[in-house]
């Protein structure tokens, strides 16, 4: 079994996934609009180009998402965050800078008792992130 986060972007899924591709190095980006799908007839015309389902890869993790259902409000992530594990402090700083652009910094990158560097940010798409570069473990 695998658990894959599924995020609703309220109309900004394609924009968010392309941003993650450019700034976080996401790969295998798939964006499936309502147009041309079996659900096209159930969506109003203004939703035909919205994303019914999308996916991308961040490292070994698949992130899935969509614009949601037309008329169904999604208010963002209130009780969870995506945890992005990185291999170096430099990688954390770069990812943090990209995610903080237009977003809200909740905790700037800093060393903690459990990590070499740790940060928290809500990006411009309303997605909450926790970034962690773990400390080297003693042998």
From TrEMBL:
Q: Which InterPro entries match?
A: Glyas_Bleomycin-R_OHBP_Dase (IPR029068), PhnB-like (IPR028973)
PhnB-like domain segment(s): 3-131
Pfam families in the cross-refs? 3-dmu-9_3-mt
Q: What is this protein called?
A: VOC family protein
